[in-house]
User: Fold this.
Amino acid sequence: MLDAAGSIFSEKGYEAATLSEVVARSGGSLSTLYELFGNKAGLLAAMVSERCERISSVIEGATLSGKEPAAALREIARYLLDQLIDTDGIALLRIVIAEAGRQPELGQRFYEAGPASGRRTMGRYLASQVKRGALDIDDPEAAGVYFFHMLLGDLQMRLLCGVPVARDLDPDAHVARTVDAFMRLYAPR
Assistant:
């Protein structure tokens, strides 16, 4: 049901999509959908939670992998970049932003499960690398935020505004430049 809802929300927009369409596409029943999610807002909230959990688990896995900082950051960066340029991912982000005014709890849930969780995880990881002597950072959590902004900032804004980036984007080069700049900024002195 979550996959069907994601496709329909992407195709038609959240407001125009109906739960009947989600049920028809997923092969489930309306009663099951209501039992699992409560309503369309609950379905959207579940989609947000599921996607944020996937992203958080990749960030957590990379930070626990024992890799040197540059390798772990490349892994995180490439996954986040792939999620950003994914059509369904940017569509869901647009929906969350559009709905946050009407459903502030959705915006709060997204922020806490996504960006805030990623910021805390990166902060813990970067702090552990400072203790190892692999990085020199005064505020690891803020440095994690800078990393995410360097990686996603302009690209995310372009995609949210409907400006295509596929032609100008070399994902591997963008990840490499971001990680290299971060490492130069925070290399041990």
